[in-house]
Amino acid sequence: MSFTESIARKRDGLELAESEIASFVRGASSAELPVEQLAAMLMAICIRGMTERESADLTREMLNSGDQWNLAEDIPEAVDKHSTGGVGDTVSLIFAPLMASVGVPVAMMAGRGLGHSQGTLDKLESIPGFKVSWDRKGMLSLIDSCGAAIVAQTEEIAPADRVLYALRDVTGTVPSLPLIVASIMSKKLALGAGTLILDVKCGRGAFRKNIEDAKSLALALRSVARRSGVRCQALITEMDQPLGPFLGNAVEVREALEVLSGRGSLRLRDLSLRLAEESLVLAGRDRGESAETLHNALNSGKALKKWEEIVRAHGGDPDPDLLPKPEEIIEVRAAADGFLRSIDGESLGWSTVEIGAGRRRQDEPIDDAAGLEVCARLGDSIVRGQTVARILVGRRKVDLEALKLKVEKAFEIGKEEMSPPPLVYGPPEDLD
Ligand code: URA
Ligand code: CA
């Protein structure tokens, strides 16, 4: 069967055979299939979905498209953490030093920006000298020297995902359950940490907009992990508004430093602590004791000291004064009095991409300094003219007036009060 026929079959809602999925994955990793066919198949999958069987085949084929590092063989207690993608999600930058500072090794294979959501690797690369390309041996020596390694997918790890991830990023094909599951789990299983904590984002700023969709993703991801022998928990968390106040790269690194210093955004701090606590519980530790240990690590400066060690070990300079700064700051003001009833986080994420913190084409360079600051929260009482956001302008030339209007429109102000949703909905069982 030609691949064109497979695309047409998926377009018509038919179930793909294992061999067709294998051709798709092989075609992606070997560049045997042209990008237009890969993109068409991604769109067909995105619209038509996949059965559980197809989804399992896709994950397995993507895992088998490359090397497997089996890190748990060398470091059985290493923890990996992954978020399904949101905005202002600075947690990984806090989680890694926090966990390492309480003696739990962290092994993370992080991603770049995807769609409207910013990536941990892009953020780390705003630190002068920070290196994200390491092989297995390099990763083990990083963990040995500083307790944590945050690395990029290598050429050899899930190569099919590397190709498809970049293609999904620019073809509007990110928010599909089977594509997200295969993308995340092929990388997680290839790395092979024994413990995995998943932050499944739910809401307007996430790829999964409602509780049912987030829950099905959490269950699917967790069951793939557990079936492969990984200790795994998935927490569904609120993404109806940006998690932390900053969206971008250097600006998110700076905010992580604030939280690691015992200050900064409470939402970021609370979620980082909760995910770290769940990870310690997965590793067999007592919940109450873990919570206390983690709080102390943030408040005592221990986690901050660990951050500096981690940055140095990765070749970076931890001096925050060296982080690139925006060239201009534009205030975005509220158009009306009332209460902040909704924030379009996805639109803010796209504005962040546009100002330079992300890529509009696959090969576009990132502007480390650019980003957004969100100055109001859901439920806040708002006075007309107050600053609801700031555009942090870098070097990229964009239509700032249009962007300002777009950012202003992302804040919906109404007359009625609203109570904001909880930050953490919990593991999928809690939502039954
Ligand atoms: N993170 C990934 O690695 N892949 C996705 O598809 C979404 C989030
Ligand atoms: Ca850089």
Can you walk me through this structure?
- Helix content is 46%, strand content 15%.
- The chain is α/β, with parallel strands linked by helices and 432 residues long.
- It has three domains: 3-49; 71-320, 3-Layer(aba) Sandwich (Pyrimidine Nucleoside Phosphorylase, Chain A, domain 2); 325-414, Aldehyde Oxidoreductase, domain 3, CATH 3.90.1170.30.
- β4 (195-202), α11 (211-227) and β5 form a beta-alpha-beta unit.
- α6 (91-101) packs across α13 (266-282).
- The protein is globular, with a radius of gyration of 21 Å.
- It starts with a helix and ends in a 6-residue tail after the last strand.
- The model has no long low-confidence stretch (mean pLDDT 96).
- Residues 84-85, 111, 114, 179-180, 183-184 line the site of uracil.
Tell me the CATH architecture of the largest domain: 3-Layer(aba) Sandwich
Return the string of H and E elements. Answer: HHHHHEHEHHEHHEHEEHHHHEEHEEEHEE
Give the terminus-to-terminus CA distance.
Answer: 43 Å
Structure ligands: uracil, calcium ion
CA radius of gyration: 21 Å
The CATH topology of the largest domain turns out to be Pyrimidine Nucleoside Phosphorylase, Chain A, domain 2
Highest CATH level, the class of the largest domain: Alpha Beta
CATH superfamily of the largest domain: Nucleoside phosphorylase/phosphoribosyltransferase catalytic domain
Structural class: alpha/beta
Number of strands: 13
What's the tally of helices? 17
Residue stretches low in confidence (pLDDT < 50, at least 5 long) are: none
Specify the helix fraction band: 40-55%
How are the strands of the biggest sheet laid out side by side?
Answer: 1-4-5-13
User: Strand content of the residues, in percent?
Assistant: 15-25%
